[in-house]
Every structure is written in structure tokens, then in C-alpha cells.
Amino acid sequence: MEKENIEVGEIFTIVDENDEEQEVEVLSVINLEGTEYAAVGFVEDIQEGTEEDLDVFFLKVDEDGDFSAVESDEEFDKVSAAFDEIMKED
Q1: Looking at the domain assignment, is residue 4 inside a domain?
Q2: pLDDT tens, position by position, 35-58
Q3: InterPro entries given for it (predicted)?
């Protein structure tokens, strides 16, 4: 089954490490070496703050369209650098 693409601006709920639900908004999406990644920020922070204050984190999208954390520092650095390039172009 073809998974739906993640859309920028899409808002969804994740459960954090404290088992609390948090709403996050997709800020950007990239495909890196065949894997889709989403840069997300907490909706509350986006509504309240400025971009400088915004905590952005990256989630990996698996074949089922589910999100998982970026596991390794190496993978994180690679994804972070790729998103930095996109942000500079905007």
C-alpha cells in the first residue's frame, strides 16, 4: 500500500519520553538516500515563540508512515546538515 506523504504544516500528536502527548507541526520534509525525514517543532512553541527559540527535531518516516526517532549521532548529523541546506535556500 502506498503511504501518504507527510505534508508541511501537518499537525499530529506524539508521545514523549514521559508518556505525555505533545502536538507537533511538520516544518519541513526531505528524502535522504531513500528515507523520508520530517523536521518538526512543538505546536505550542511555534504559536508562542520566535524561530530562534524553536526546538526543532527530526523524525524518520518508516514504510508504514509511522515516525521513529533518529537513532545514531551520525544519522542525526547527516539529516541536520541536509535540513540546514534547505533552510538556507528559502
Answers
A1: no
A2: 999 999 999 888 886 666 778 889
A3: UPF0473 (IPR009711)
